[in-house]
Amino acid sequence: MTRQAVLVVDLQKDYLPEGRMALEGVHEAVANAARVIADAREKGIPVFHMWHEAPEADAGFFLPGSEGTQIIPQVTPQEGEQVLRKHYPNSFRETGLLDLLRAEGIEAITMVGAMSHICIAATGRAATDFGFDVTTIHDACATRALEFDGVTVPAAQVHAANMAALDFAYGKAIATADYLSD
Q1: Any idea which GO molecular function terms this record carries (predicted)?
Q2: Alpha-carbon distance 88 to 118, whole Å?
């Protein structure tokens, strides 16, 4: 049997509507992430939490010591669950995550979190490059609209494009209900 883990990426207060970097659909994503986490805990699947803190005080969000860096209560880590601080989109970069996963014999990662187009995308790609089987729970992730070259790309399209890329070449992207029914 493949040893798996759930990776919760950056579900922190600055992503809430009242935060410094509000995401569309964040409440639904957090609710679905909480369901995935509860399922993992019930089955004894390890849960790892990534906690993003900006390395500079002028970053705009996830400011050191701010309320916005706090993990959203519905997905609060339980005693014994690993919480790793990160400063970059890729959850593996300078965090020790890879060593922890390997030490526990983890072969498959299920990801939930934010932002779909940055930290989820970077972490999913890196995890695949490191040889993990990656499943992204698409409706347990959230993002926001982006602007490029005078064009605003709606959050739903940003999210869909990134989930499509992950599903195409970096594992699979599935809904919470499908994940929980397996």
Answers
A1: hydrolase activity
A2: 10
